[in-house]
Each structure stands twice: as structure tokens, then as C-alpha cells.
What we know:
Helices cover 35% and strands 23% of the residues. The protein is an alpha/beta fold. The protein is globular. The model is unreliable at 1-7 (pLDDT under 50). Zinc ion is lined by residues 175, 184, 186, 188, 191, 193.
Amino acid sequence: MGGDHGTPGGGGRDVVAGLDIGGTGTSVVLLDGERVVAREHAATPVRDGGAAMAAAAAGLVRSALAAAPGTRLVGAGVGAAGVVDAASGTVVAASDSFRDWAGFPLAAELGAALGVPVRVENDVNAFALGEARLGAARGLDDVLAIMLGTGVGGAFVLSGGLYRGPTGAAGEIGHVAGFGDLSCTCGGRGHLETLASGRAVARSYGRTAGVTVAGAREVADLARAGDPHARGAFAAAADAVGRAAVLVASLLDVTDVVVGGGVAAAWDLLADGIEAGVRREPPVSGAAVRVRPSALGRDAVALGAASIAPAAALSLAG
Ligand SMILES: [Zn+2]
């Protein structure tokens, strides 16, 4: 074999890259079939603009290729924070923390930098694909994925493929009302996000305990130590997620749910409450509603993104 390794167009085994470009970090996995052969992670330069973020992501892919000699990159998929036009691979809208991200032609720029075709999806959609194809919902055709992060996102895999809806907003379970009366980040009231996001758990604890905490992870530590206010905050989140799962199961007959994101890392504090929320008012069909934690953890978005890479060996209908 020649000295080729990790260069687009070089010899060696074909691999695809999966990228997770989030508000704090960017992660890259290289996949040979379903096997992860290299991983890279670095902070996302959100303040430096879309071009810098894409350049940093391309740099991580190159580092991963260098760490996996004898591989040849043939395609890449990206799960990106924000609203994404999957057809063009362009970021359509993003939160204020990102500079020059909305409007950025990510697929085109990253494709030019890496010399391979690139597809882009919203990160929650990529999470759903990752769990349905390789994770907690592997082998299931119809799945609701919920991400309990800073906010609450959701996505559907239906009949084995992503269901986006006519405007790309399918699965936005975080902004469905009927979950109390608190103000939501979107301007609405009583949305699932007001009880189940990381911010909501921290705020809920702060309200009852009269103490300000940094985030849900701190509340989880307090809950495990027996703090009743912290346990109450997680109980409220769990109950809301359980009821949301029943809502979807009743409307769409989608009874398999995967929950990921930072809050779901405290599954020990959520599992019983979710189960109770599901059991209290089961769908009229009588079908069992199964709510599982993410099996892929921090890799879920990147692995789902890899599965949409052009030429991905594990790619199904996307
Ligand atoms: Zn909302």
C-alpha cells in the first residue's frame, strides 16, 4: 500500500464522517460500515461565524482521518443546531448565540473543504436517525425522539425514514401546550419545554428551594442526595415527558419513544416518573408505550448524521 491515509480521493478503506455541530461542541465520528474507527471533539467557535465553524469541523474530520490510517473519506453527514434546509444543506435559522450561521451554505462549504459530498440535517433529526438505526430504537420503523437539552426538541422516524412535515417542523413536541402555565422561551405558555428542559429543571428547583443553581446536572446531584425540591423538579419533568409520549401514541400510534439530551443523562431520576405518567392515562388503543433512554449518548447526533452521508454503508431511506 502506498502512503495514502486519510486523504479524500486516496486509497484505503472507505469511511464516512458523521458530524455533530452544536452550540458548545463539535464532534466527529468516522465510520467504517457501522464501526467507529476514529473520534474527535472540540469547542464550536460559535462567535466566529459560519465559515469558522465549518473550517473547524473540517479540521476535526482531517484529524480523525489522520488517526485512522488506511482510510479514505467518501462522504459526510452533519447534524447541525438550528433550522436546516436539508435539500440544500443550508442553515435557515439559528439562535442568537451563533454568529453568521443562519443562511450559511454548510453542505456546500464543508463539501468543498473535504472534497466529498455532504448532507446536512437538523441535530434533533440526526439524533432520531442515530437512535433508530444504531441505538435504543434499532430495528424499529416508527419512533418519536425527544431531546431534553437547553430546550426540548423532537423528531419522528416513520416507516424507517425521517418525517419532516411540509414545513420541516414535524415533531416539535417541546412547544405543545397542556403542561402547566409557565412562560416558554418561544413566547407561549405551558409548553412541555417549560417543565422538561435543562433550564426548566434548574428553574423549577430554584423556585421551590429558593436557591439558584447552574443547571440540571447540579439539580440531579442534589436529587440523588435526597433533596426533596430537586427530586420534585425531576418528577415534574418525568411526568410531563410521560404524558407527552402518551399524547403522541394516541395521535399517531407511535408507541416507541427515545429520550436523549443532557437531562436524560439523569435517567435514574426520570424512569419511574415517566412510567407513571404513561400509565396514568394510557392510549385508548391499549398499546404499550415504551419510553427508553438514548443508547448512543454523546455520539447519537454524529452517528445519525453519518447514516445520511452520501455513500454511507448503513444508509437507509432518509
Ligand atoms: Zn414553547
